[in-house]
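Is this the right way to post structure tokens for a design question? Let me know if I should format differently. Anyway, here goes:
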């Protein structure tokens, strides 16, 4: 563990002294060769591009217009996404006394928009799929302005982070999500016969790319990869999605949403766009600065998915022993409400 402790001390020193643009941080040398670093960057960017196209293929313009015409559900969901998750990330970073580099990693994850996994989880929970897709769309678009603003505000609470956020790189990464998402929407609108294939291909490529990056990082990072599995980081990965699910559902109850909408908002709140988070951490930060912490989204997605699957299991058990009301489905319950 000496390597990990030395890295944390050096990286923290570099952040506190504003050293992000140099080749090294606090004397820490990047474990990646230029070829490996470029390979991981390329895989990360290509994966984000493809998965966002597949996300766009799930969106229908007519259904988006319907929710925009009566935006109460979307408004609550966006408030939950950009209110609950960034605040949760900030509070956890403070309570667990994370170092500067760890804190900014957690904040970026917390400020990300909703991810496409939330659509799958909402479907499994018999949620409102139209609302789920529109929520993902709106949070992705609004993230272009909301994410940099939230990072700026919350970074004021950490000494040394006020000027450490690479806003230009983050905005570029956000634009990279909007363009392919728009391409996917166009494909689904004008050539819908290709949508199912693209969605399946996107999920398959995401899985393969995640495994490939994980293997490469384990080989080249060695012992320093265990920094990501420190007790504080593991606690954040466990608590943050669970808090999002719980508070998202609570907020929807307060605003008197129906059952499918409640479950949808809970999933949309707790599920972050992990592909975008990984891209920002890998592309916007030098590897010497972020080190193995760019693997944090992969740790996060494990618990995000595991906790969602647990909730889905409990919901299925509830349905089995106490069937839900007739008509409470993703398509029926939303009509006439």
């Amino acid at each position: 563990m000496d390597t990990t402790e030395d890295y944390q001390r050096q990286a923290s020193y570099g952040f506190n002294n504003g050293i992000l643009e140099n080749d090294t941080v606090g004397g820490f040398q990047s474990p990646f060769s230029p070829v490996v670093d470029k390979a991981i960057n390329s895989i990360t960017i290509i994966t984000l591009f493809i998965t966002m196209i597949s996300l766009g293929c799930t969106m229908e313009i007519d259904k988006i217009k319907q929710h925009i015409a009566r935006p109460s559900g979307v408004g609550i969901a966006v408030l939950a996404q950009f209110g609950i998750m960034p605040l949760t990330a900030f509070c956890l970073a403070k309570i667990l006394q994370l170092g500067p580099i760890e804190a900014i990693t957690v904040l970026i994850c917390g400020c990300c928009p909703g991810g496409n996994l939330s659509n799958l989880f909402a479907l499994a929970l018999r949620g409102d799929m139209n609302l789920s897709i529109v929520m993902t769309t709106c949070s992705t678009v609004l993230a272009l302005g909301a994410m940099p603003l939230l990072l700026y505000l919350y970074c004021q609470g950490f000494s040394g982070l006020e000027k450490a956020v690479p806003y230009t790189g983050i905005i570029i990464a956000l634009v990279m999500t909007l363009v392919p998402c728009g391409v996917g929407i166009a494909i689904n609108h004008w050539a819908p016969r290709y949508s199912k294939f693209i969605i399946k291909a996107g999920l398959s490529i995401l899985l393969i790319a995640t495994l490939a990056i994980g293997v490469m990082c384990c080989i080249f990072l060695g012992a320093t990869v265990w920094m990501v599995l420190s007790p504080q980081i593991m606690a954040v990965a466990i608590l943050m999605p669970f808090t999002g699910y719980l508070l998202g559902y609570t907020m929807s109850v307060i605003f008197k949403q129906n059952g499918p909408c409640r479950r949808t908002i809970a999933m949309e709140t707790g599920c972050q766009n992990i592909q975008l988070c990984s891209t920002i951490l890998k592309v916007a930060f030098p590897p010497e600065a972020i080190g193995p912490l760019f693997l944090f989204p992969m740790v996060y997605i494990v618990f995000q998915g595991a906790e969602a699957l647990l909730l889905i299991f409990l919901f299925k058990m509830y349905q089995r022993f106490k069937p839900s009301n007739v008509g409470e489905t993703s398509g029926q319950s939303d009509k006439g409400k």
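Format looks fine. Someone answered above. Worth noting: DSSP finds 14 helices and no strands in the chain. Confidence is low (pLDDT under 50) at residues 1-28, 326-337.
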